[in-house]
Each structure stands twice: as C-alpha cells, then as structure tokens.
Amino acid sequence: MKKILALFLTFILFATTALAETVVFNTKTYKYHKVWCQWANRCTVNCIKIDKKEAIKRGGIPCKVCGG
C-alpha cells in the first residue's frame, strides 16, 4: 500500500510540474516562444522567461515557428 501511495504522489508531482511550461515572452511584440526556439535565442532586449499561462494571460501570441 505504501508503494502505491508513493507512486501516486510521484505521479501527481510530475504531472503538476509538466503542466507549468516556461516560455520566452517578448514584452514588446507579445509573442512567446519555446525556450529552445531559434527566435527565443535571438531575443535579448525585451524578452523574459515566464509561465506559458501567464504569457497567454498577458495577451501573448504563439510563435509561428515553434508554436509557443
């Protein structure tokens, strides 16, 4: 029973961590990119790393290359 409970808690922890996706958000253009995107790597001035939900909440538009 303890093993099942430990497995369940591990799954819950992993699932909640996987849902929080970090993106690179451009505060000037409102576009957001996945961290590995070529355009995220080029963005140095107006970009911040935030949660994807927060980027959408701020009116963010997904990148056409990586899909945000």
Walkthrough of the structure:
With 68 residues, this protein is α+β, with helices and mostly antiparallel strands. It has one domain. The chain is 43% helix and 24% strand. The protein has helices at residues 2-19, 38-42, 52-57; strands at residues 22-26, 31-34, 47-51, 61-62. A 4-stranded mixed β-sheet has the order 3-1-2-4. The longest helix has 18 residues, at 2-19. The radius of gyration is 16 Å and the shape is elongated. The model has no long low-confidence stretch (mean pLDDT 84).
Write the layout of secondary structure elements.
Elements: H1 2-19, E1 22-26, E2 31-34, H2 38-42, E3 47-51, H3 52-57, E4 61-62
Helix percentage: 40-55%
Strand order of the largest sheet: 3-1-2-4
**Major beta sheet, specifics?**
4 strands, mixed
Poorly predicted spans: none
Distance between the termini: 41 Å
> Which class best fits the helix and strand makeup?
alpha+beta
- Compute the CA-based radius of gyration: 16 Å
Order of helices and strands: HEEHEHE
**Number of discrete domains:** 1
